[in-house]
């Protein structure tokens, strides 16, 4: 995966990666994990502009996973809401952070620390 590019991402995961790119993208001088920490931390969910939301779900039938939603008018994707299993979700978070690190070298150390902090290096 390359930053801001969905090439190489399976179509079923486009929604997940697109929303993750919105979450990880820099906003002023905020840390790279400014929004991500709310999703990976105790809150297990968050939403924001431009019309996105991620929420952890424990479903007895479906299992554990993350519900991802994005406004179709903003994302320009066919799917507006999907649920991803935890393994797929955490792998996508790691890959998104790594792609951002390659594209924005000044954040490389910060991203390496985020990956270790949330145990994404163990996936």
What topology does this entry show?
Blueprint: H1 14-24, H2 36-40, E1 45-48, E2 52-59, E3 63-70, H3 72-75, E4 81-85, H4 86-103, H5 108-117
Antiparallel strand pairs: 1-2, 2-3, 3-4
Helix pairs in contact: 1-4, 4-5
Query: What string, H for helix and E for strand, traces the elements in order?
Result: HHEEEHEHH
Overall shape: it is globular
Count of distinct strands: 4
Radius of gyration computed on alpha carbons: 14 Å
Helical percent range? 25-40%
Total DSSP helices: 5
Tell me, rounded to a whole number, the average pLDDT: 90
Termini separation (Å)? 17 Å
The parts where pLDDT drops under 50 for at least 5 residues are none
What does this molecule look like?
The structure is a single chain. Helix 4 packs antiparallel against helix 5. The protein is globular. The protein has a 4-stranded antiparallel β-sheet with strand order 1-2-3-4. The mean pLDDT is 90. It is of the alpha+beta class and 123 residues long. It has one domain.
Characteristic terms for this protein:
single chain; 123 residues; four-stranded antiparallel beta sheet; alpha+beta
Structure, briefly:
With 123 residues, the chain is α+β, with helices and mostly antiparallel strands. It is 39% helix and 20% strand.
């Amino acid at each position: 995966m390359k930053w801001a590019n969905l090439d190489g991402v399976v179509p079923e995961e486009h929604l997940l990666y697109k929303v993750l790119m919105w979450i990880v993208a820099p906003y002023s001088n905020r840390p790279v994990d400014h929004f991500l920490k709310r999703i990976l931390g105790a809150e297990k969910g968050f939403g924001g502009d431009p019309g996105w939301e991620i929420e952890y779900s424990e479903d007895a039938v479906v299992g554990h996973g993350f519900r991802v939603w994005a406004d179709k008018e903003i994302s320009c994707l066919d799917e507006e809401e999907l649920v991803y299993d935890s393994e797929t979700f955490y792998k996508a978070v790691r890959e998104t952070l790594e792609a951002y690190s390659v594209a924005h070298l000044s954040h490389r150390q910060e991203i390496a620390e985020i990956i270790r902090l949330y145990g994404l290096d163990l996936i």
